[in-house]
Specification:
single chain; mainly alpha; 8 helices; 79% helix
Length: 175
């Protein structure tokens, strides 16, 4: 039984690399530019404009619920709202356009709404997460295009949860 499922899985995905080379390109070449961009924006805002960027950890005492919320609950709902819902609705709305234009508009709108959802009483914080919204939207869009919406949602959620896990763990250990 398990052997048959394994053979079926190999037949279905034999011609396609796992989640596609475009996805790995996005992940591989995203992290360093993201760190440089967010670091530059943060340095500019804090030094030049004399405004300290307020994170969620500065506002609340970090406990196990906030850890669970930041790593699992928030990424699940943000992925559902910002990527799954928005991109699917936008693709239906822009179905009269070409596939490329529809994809660009869907990714753009999803990224803008993802950044707007991260306002947190700090007007500069959405600029720090805008590029993350672009990457997550592209991961969802290209994975959905190659496979299906369920696999795209799961992969996007896991990437988002891992991104949130790193700073949350650092703050949880050192605060």
């Amino acid at each position: 039984m398990l052997k048959n499922k394994l053979y079926l899985w190999l037949e279905v995905y034999q011609g396609k690399p796992l989640y596609g080379p475009r996805l790995w390109f996005i992940i591989k070449y995203y992290f360093l530019p993201h760190l440089l961009l967010t670091g530059t924006i943060t340095l500019y805002v804090e030094r030049t404009l004399q405004h300290r960027i307020v994170g969620v950890f500065d506002e609340y005492k970090l406990d196990s619920f906030l850890f669970l919320h930041g790593v699992l609950i928030a990424p699940f709902f943000e992925t559902w709202l910002s990527q799954w819902l928005i991109i699917n609705v936008c693709q239906q709305l822009f179905s009269t356009f070409s596939e490329r234009i529809s994809g660009i508009l869907s990714i753009g709108i999803s990224s803008i709404l993802f950044a707007a959802a991260h306002y947190f009483n700090d007007p500069y914080y959405p600029f720090l997460v805008f590029d993350s919204g672009i990457v997550l939207a592209m991961v969802y869009y290209f994975t959905k295009k190659e496979f299906d919406a369920n696999k795209a949602f799961i992969l996007t959620f896991l990437i988002h949860a891992c991104w949130n896990l790193i700073p949350t763990t650092i703050h949880f250990i050192f605060l």
